[in-house]
Amino acid sequence: MLLSIDTSAGTSVAVVDRDRGIIAEHSEADTRRHAEVIGELIARCLTDAGVAVTGLSGVAVGMGPGPFTGLRVGIAAAQSFALGAARPVVRVVSHDAIAYGHYASGGSGPLLVTTDARRRELYWSEYAGADEQGLPVRVEGPGLSSPDPIASRDIRRLDAQEVSAGALGTLAEAMHLHGRSFAGEEPLYLRSPDVTLAAGPKRVSG
Amino acid sequence: MTREHRAHEPLVLGIETSCDETGVGIVRGTTLLANVIASSMDEHARYGGVVPEIAARAHLEALTPTLTTALEQADVTLADLDAVAVTSGPGLSGALMVGVGAAKALAVSLDKPLYAVNHLVGHVGADVLTGEDVEHPTVALLVSGGHTSLLLVRDLVNDVEMLGETIDDAAGEAFDKVARLLGLPYPGGPEIDRAAASGDPTAIRFPRGLSLPKDMEKHRYDFSFSGLKTAVARWVEQRRDAGEEVPVADVAASFREAVADVLITKAVAACRDLGVPRLLLGGGVVANARVRALAEERCAAAGIALRIPPFSLCTDNGAMIAALGAQLVAAGRPPSGLGFGADSTLPVTSIQA
Ligand SMILES: [Zn+2]
Fold this sequence. Notes:
Shape of chain B: globular
Strand order of the largest sheet of chain B: 3-2-1-4-5
Number of strands of chain A: 9
CATH superfamily of the largest domain in chain B: ATPase, nucleotide binding domain
Helix content of chain A: 25-40%
Strand content of chain A: 25-35%
Shape of chain A: globular
Radius of gyration of chain B: 20 Å
Low-confidence stretches of chain B: 1-5
Order of helices and strands of chain B: HEEEHHEHEHEEEHHHHHEHEHH
Structural class of chain A: alpha/beta
Largest sheet of chain B: 5 strands, mixed
Helix content of chain B: 40-55%
Oligomer: heterodimer
Radius of gyration of chain A: 18 Å
CATH class of chain A: Alpha Beta
Number of domains of chain A: 1
CATH class of the largest domain in chain B: Alpha Beta
Bound molecules: zinc ion
Order of helices and strands of chain A: EEEHEHEHEEEHEH
CATH topology of the largest domain in chain B: Nucleotidyltransferase, domain 5
C-alpha cells in the first residue's frame, strides 16, 4: 500500500493498493494553496483509508514537470513523510500518471499530454501507447514549449488540468510489480531559476 | 537540574527555511541537542544577493540530509520527539513552503503535534539555549540580510511588539551592495569588516538614515539603508571620475560605522525610552565586529545588560525554531493544526501561527 502525492498542478493525495486500487483520494485544484492543504489531505487520506502509517509500504511522488513552488511542496512532503514512516520514496514523472489513466480507461495509440507551465508555455510528453502491462511508453519529453508547435502536431492530445495522485500511485504499484525503473531524484523543473546577472553596480550620479 | 526533571522537558525538532539556510535543530526544553545548517550562500555569490528560486531549490535538496544529520547529532529518533516546529513566516514564500510542506508531512507520519512559529520571534527564542537566565522584558535588535527589526519582548510566548524595522533594504543587504561597489565579494558583511579593520571610521561622514529630527517623529525606531548605500556609491563615483584612487579601507570603515551607529543608537534609545535595561542582539550581522563593539560600549555606558548568543544561534537556524516551539509546548499551547500556510509577511505579534 502506498501513500501517493502529486503537486505538479493542484494538490492531490491518495492511498492506493496493488489489489484494491485507489482506496482514498483527496485533491485541491487551486494551484496556489499547496503548502496550506498538503497536511490535511494526507491526514484525511490515511483516515479514510483506515490505514496506519506502519501499514504503508512506501510513498509515491510526482516529480513534475510542474511550476516550481507547488511542485516542491509535494516532493518535500513525500520525502519527509517517508523519513518519518521509515519507508522508501518512489518517484514518478507526473505526465506518466496522466497517460496511464488515459490508457487504463480504454484509450490507445499515440498521445501527447500537456499541462500548464504558466507564462504562456506548456509542459508536454509524448507517448507511443501502452505496453502489454498497460504501462505508458513515453517516447519524447517531458519538455517545455510555447503552444504553437504543439497545436500544429497531428496527434491525439490530452490537455490535463490535474494530476491524480490515485493514478500516480497505481502506476507506481504497477511499475514496481513489473520491475520498471523509477524517475530520478531531480525535480522536473525544466526551467532555470529566473536570474539575470547584473552587469556591475549601476551609476547613481549623473 | 536533575535528570528526572529534564526528562519532562519537551523534545522538539525545529525546521527553518525562510531564507538561504536550511536549518534543523533539536532541543530538549532549553537544552540544545543539535543545530545543523546547510547554506546555499555560495550559489548566490555570483548574483550578489539571495536568489529566491535558487534558495528554494537548495532547501528541497538539503532538507532530508539535514534532518538525518540533526537526529544523529542529537542521538534521538523521530519517535522520541514530543513535537515538531517550523518557521511559517516571515521570509521568502517559496523557501518557507518547502519547510512547511515537509514539517506537516513529518508531523502526520509521526502523529506528533506541529507548531508553526514566527521566524523573528525564533531569533529571540535562541537566547533560552545559552544556558543563562533569560529576563524579560527585553529589547531585541535582529539584523541580517533578510530583516532589520527592533522588537520589544515582554514575554516570549505571549507578548512581542514590533517597535520598528527597515523601510527599504535590510542592513545585511546594504553590506552586500556596498561590498560590490568596492569590488569585494559576496557576502559583503565579513569582507567589509576585513577591509574596514585598517580604515578610518571618521574619514567620511556618511548619512545616518531616519535620524534627523523630522524623521525621528515618524520613524523613531525604523531604519533605512538605501540612502546610505546611494551616498557611498556617489562618493566612490566622484573619486573614480576624478581619476583618484578609492580608499577602500576608509570607505568600508566609514560605511560600517554609519550602519553600526544607527543600529545601536536606535536600539539603545528604545531601551532608554521604554525603561528596559536589556538588549538582545540576533541575526547574522552580529558577526560584524564593529556592531558588537559599539553595542558593548554604548550598553555599558547606559547601564544596559547586553546579550549576544553564540554566532551559530544568531544566524538563521532550526535550533531557535525548536527552542521557541519547546517554550510554546511548555506553556501548554495547543498545536497549530495542519491548515496554516507560509506567510511571507507574518507579523511579529503572531508568535505562533
Ligand atoms: Zn533571520
